[in-house]
Amino acid sequence: MPDQRISFSKTGRARYISHLDLMRTFQRAFLRAEVPIRHTEGFNPHAYVSIPLPLSVGYSSECEIMEFGLMGEVPLSEVPWRLTRTLPEGITVHRCYDAARPFKELCYVNYIITLEYEAGTPVGAENAIRALLSRDALVVTKKSKKAKSGETQVDLIPLIHRVDYEGRRDALTLNAVLRAQNPGLNPALILEAIGRECPQAAPDYVSYHRKRVLDQEFQPYE
């Protein structure tokens, strides 16, 4: 297990930085911030950084985690401000701490899913989505690198722990706690199911925001 972790947010235009570009951005940031970290071995060594739950392009988050190995004598309390001043707008490091818990204990992610409607929230949209996500089973097809066909079927219902709803005149917010891994649930699959099963409730625009990462007891994971 790596020695240290940082927690950071990714908002605004930074939402559109891909996972690989984000990794490269942090590798350069550690160098510019003069925070020495462990490097890989071999012919072409590079700074070792790892993000356990890669964030999809376009998603915002206030609870991202990065793992690395700190070298030298830089105090952990100095790492957040040193990194933040070298990072692009929208990426802010909030905390640096010693890793204590294995990644397998990260079990759930709290997403805020906002459905927006240009002509106002359709009548009955909330009830339709509630009924959909309350079914005994809701099977969708998703891409899979492991399947020979390139696709696999997954039942969303066992991967959804809880969904709370808040309706407004032109939007519907889903506050959802979803399984994080083994397997995890990308909330985009929920929107895919809404579009297929109750198209009258399909939004004109949707945004996804990670609010918290949780352990098996639904407590904050650190």
Automatic annotation (TrEMBL):
Superkingdom: Bacteria
InterPro entries in the cross-refs: DUF2344
Ranges where the DUF2344 domain occurs: 5-185
Cited NCBIfam families: sam_1_link_chp
Designated name of the protein: TIGR03936 family radical SAM-associated protein
Protein source organism: Intestinimonas massiliensis
